[in-house]
């Protein structure tokens, strides 16, 4: 048996994972806040610009299908390192492409950035649920909250650089260096997602359970469908709130941006504060409440007769959507023997919804209006509510302590348990 980590080492591991999620948010915002510079530097109108951005989506979508295999074969830490090297190289190359006005290089850069982001997202979630099990309490919503904080900080940096006239290439280069530095520092303090499963018998079980086995596992797929609905609730908001407010509520662009900020702020608040409720009341009870809030918020936003009530809907929708995705990742990790593979599969389903859902909603919005198109999202969130019971696997609906799951329980090292009612 390998030495058990001390409480301080586990806390350091947890903080390192928080930094990785924060870095992911920085990476996302590093270029999205300066799309105008890309369009202007490459002399692209909205149509060609949309085709260029599709390169990032294609890269992400192609990588997300193989991310589970890569994580299970090489381990989460190795995949995080490799994927961030790839993604930050893409960030820097986008800056170079715009500087020399090369559309082909920009497309290639966005594609490899998408590849890196997709793999890093899956691998980071596997690390996240591993440290959650080691801590013995729910913390994945806080990790995803740090991603949201990273996007806010990244957006603020991008806005400030735009105001100060910092060249796009310079902005992208130093953001790439900052992001990879944060990740390299954090990985020094991360540990294997198989921590607590150090015996030969346990590791044999871990390595024998493969990605294709998880795709055939009914329980894993049902958790994935739950996550799919909540990912759509989050992803559709990111893409369509501002446009719905400006076009169908007939507000200004500033109000549209404020609407997006309102949703993100509500969701971040829900993630940072909701962990307390998860630990106090359990996964199922809290998710039933939050899914119901997401349904209510969507209904209000879709049918509200005025902008003020629409903003109320955004707040309720954001709070309701906040815990679904991260808690689904936690549920997929309940069986520590299968955790890494199952989390990678559920992550794949969730990120496929993030990537593929909003464009399909655009087609519905074109035919029926954006707000009425969101009725499709409402149906999926209702499905997620119906599936919450499948997220309860073990007695008392609490995270499993991997340290207590060795082949001989009598020899297991006792862990400090959190105070829970």
Automatic annotation (TrEMBL):
Keywords assigned: Membrane, Transmembrane, Transmembrane helix
Source superkingdom: Bacteria
Gene Ontology cellular-component terms listed: membrane
Keyword presence, Nucleotide-binding: no
Membrane-spanning parts: 12-32, 52-71, 78-100, 106-126, 138-157, 163-185, 220-237, 257-274, 286-304, 310-332, 339-357, 369-388
Residue runs in coiled coils: none
Pfam families assigned to the protein according to its UniProt record, in alphabetical order: MFS_1
Chief localisation class: membrane
Subcellular localization(s) per the UniProt record: Membrane
UniProt-recorded Gene Ontology molecular function terms: transmembrane transporter activity
Membrane topology: Multi-pass membrane protein
Record carries keyword Transmembrane helix: yes
Family matches, as PANTHER family: BYPASS OF STOP CODON PROTEIN 6, INNER MEMBRANE PROTEIN YBJJ
Name recorded for this polypeptide: MFS transporter
Origin species: Rothia terrae
């Amino acid at each position: 048996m390998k030495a058990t980590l001390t409480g301080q080492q586990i806390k350091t591991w947890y903080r390192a994972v928080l930094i990785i999620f924060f870095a992911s948010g920085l990476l996302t915002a590093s270029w999205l806040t300066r799309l105008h510079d890309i369009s202007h530097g490459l002399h692209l109108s909205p149509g060609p610009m949309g085709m260029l951005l599709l390169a990032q989506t294609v890269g992400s979508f192609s990588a997300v299908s193989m991310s589970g295999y890569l994580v299970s074969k090489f381990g989460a830490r190795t995949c995080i390192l490799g994927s961030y090297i790839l993604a930050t190289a893409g960030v820097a190359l986008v800056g170079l492409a715009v500087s020399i006005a090369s559309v082909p290089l920009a497309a290639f850069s966005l594609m490899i950035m998408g590849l890196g982001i997709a793999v890093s997202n899956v691998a980071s979630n596997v690390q996240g649920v591993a440290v959650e099990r080691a801590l013995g309490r729910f913390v994945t919503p806080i990790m995803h909250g740090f991603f949201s904080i990273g996007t806010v900080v990244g957006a603020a940096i991008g806005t400030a650089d735009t105001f100060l006239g910092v060249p796009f290439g310079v902005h992208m280069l130093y953001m790439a260096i900052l992001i990879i530095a944060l990740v390299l520092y954090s990985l020094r303090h991360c540990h294997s997602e198989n921590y607590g499963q150090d015996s030969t018998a346990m590791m044999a079980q871990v390595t024998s359970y493969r990605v294709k086995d998880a795709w055939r596992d009914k329980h894993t797929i049902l958790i994935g469908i739950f996550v799919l609905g909540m990912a759509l609730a989050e992803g559709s908001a990111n893409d369509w709130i501002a446009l719905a407010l400006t076009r169908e509520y007939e507000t200004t662009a500033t109000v549209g941006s404020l609407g997006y900020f309102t949703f993100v702020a509500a969701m971040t608040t829900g993630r940072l504060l909701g962990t307390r409720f998860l630990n106090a009341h359990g996964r199922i009870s809290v998710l039933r409440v939050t899914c119901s809030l997401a349904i209510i918020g969507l209904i209000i936003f879709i049918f509200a007769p005025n902008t003020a009530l629409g903003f109320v809907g955004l707040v309720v929708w954001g709070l309701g959507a906040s815990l679904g995705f991260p808690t689904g990742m936690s549920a997929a990790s309940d069986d520590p023997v299968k955790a890494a593979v199952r989390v990678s599969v559920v992550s794949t389903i969730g990120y496929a919804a993030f990537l593929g859902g909003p464009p399909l909603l655009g087609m519905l919005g074109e035919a029926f209006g954006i707000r009425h198109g969101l009725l499709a999202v409402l149906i999926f969130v209702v499905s997620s509510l119906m599936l919450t019971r499948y997220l309860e696997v073990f007695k008392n609906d609490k995270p499993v302590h991997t340290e207590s799951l060795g082949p001989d329980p009598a020899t297991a090292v006792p862990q400090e348990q959190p105070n829970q009612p």
